Amino acid sequence: xxxxxxxxxxxxxxxxxxxxxxxxDVKYIDSLKGRGVFTTTHFTKGEFVLEYRGELINFLESxxxxxxxxxxxxxxxxxxxxxxxxxxxxxxxxxxxxxRLVNDEHINPNCKMKRIIVEGKPHLCLFALRDITxxxxxxxxxxxxxxxxxxxVRMLLLVAIFDN
Length: 164
Prior knowledge:
One of its GO terms (biological process) is regulation of transcription by RNA polymerase II. By secondary structure, the protein is an alpha+beta fold.
């Protein structure tokens, strides 16, 4: 029998220890994206990569924080449905974990966010959609939200196309 943990059990282990998985590093990318998470080891398709950690808050508290947070901080709030209600993981406070630094990639992400329930509480975890090689940026699709950086990237691409 294999001693290797299943991806779900690996996620539960890292959730319970509160530590990020080895094989990941933070790098500054540019002024548009800021920092990102990059692999230093190989991750296989389906493997647990990391948890999006933060404070679990309800809909009312999420709305309150959206009103008081600076626009830069709102990007660290991840909304999801659980038990028929809207919840948010608020990762605006930098606790040193890496999940909050994973960037959006809506065309070709290499990870997918999944909800894992541990001790009756939801946790958001990223799992590899395909094999990820060392040196690749870890990304996932933020959803269908109208993300301001997407329109800025599209504009920069159009300028580059018309300049050539």
